[in-house]
Amino acid sequence: xxxxxxxxxxxxxxxxxxxxxxxxxxxxxxxxxxxxxxxxxxxxxxxxxxxxxxxxxxxxxxxxxxxxxxxxxxxxxxxxxxxxxxxxxxxxxxxxxxxxxxxxxxxxxxxxxxxxxxxxxxxxxxxxxxxxxxxxxxxxxxxxxxxxxxxxxxxxxxxxxxxxxxxxxxxxxxxxxxxxxxxxxxxxxxxxxxxxxxxxxxxxxxxxxxxxxxxxxxxxxxxxxxxxxxxxxxxxxxxxxxxxxxxxxxxxxxxxxxxxxxxxxxxxxxxxxxxxxxxxxxxxxxxxxxxxxxxxxxxxxxxxxxxxxxxxxxxxxxxxxxxxxxxxxxxxxxxxxxxxxxxxxxxxxxxxxxxxxxxxxxxxxxxxxxxxxxxxxxxxxxxxxxxxxxxxxxxxxxxxxxxxxxxxxxxxxxxx
Length: 416
Ligand code: MG
Fold this sequence. Notes:
By secondary structure, this protein is α/β, with parallel strands linked by helices. It has 13 helices and 16 strands. It is globular, with a radius of gyration of 21 Å.
């Protein structure tokens, strides 16, 4: 019987929102993709879980989903909350049965789960709040007058940065470092400030901007072995025409994918880019359901990139199986702590069409430390290795989590 549902938020490169479910049968942890007011959403849902049997996972999720049907039918904070609650319930069930999640979920196609390193825009640790404003995490030191308080240029307009000088060596160095750590696929952001852009909002890449992005990719490509694959992310910033032009310009580099060239709500734009770009197109981190993924697959999207801390795992499996019917591989989006990353790794183990899982924490100094219950590092040579440990295969080191907690949020039952 479920006795309590608690949350904690870790102030990392994003707000990692963790859920802990305590029941007579044991304890489980889960993780949600960040959202405005997320801990409050989970707190308000918790009466529907208290005194329930934690093993009735899909039935409980259905009742939570019904509760939010009128306020959050297609995604957003409620869905993020459900994904974290679902993960905690699966972890609890696995631990109470003594079985790893990949066993509960149908068994393993593979135990070494390949990760790709998200190398951002070439910079090191960048931390964003839940409104995507840059911040200095408090544990790195108090904000000073030099701390940037303006909104992030990448997400709030600001590609036109006349003073910005592109440091190609920085990109090359980042790529070499990630490859040296054993990652066999790297991803870089191409929605970067550039001195040639004359407008922040028109989604248009002029030829000199495309030339500059080609130089970025060339610098990365030439710094690493042919054995290492490359992908790029445009964060919905382009028009269909510019997305397709970029796809053509980057064809010689044989990228694994261009991610999210056009806005997530624009089906026709996605269809055009897919048709006209010789470089494959990945999308999906802003979609929540198999119904929505069905549309993307019908439009011809070549790589499915759901975020499982948004979709949850029953729906994630449905999305994976649907993609398999289209022969489309899955490269899940993931910006999580070890809790969310392990949950995604277990699903990746159990589906045939898994390609690679994102790791967005290569610059977070305490990422490994958060995981308790394993003797060896979780990530070795660019892979998460799943073993026979029950549930997620790790538990959360709450002492470490407390050290990096978000100070104005509750920490597992303790007031801020
Ligand atoms: Mg992305």
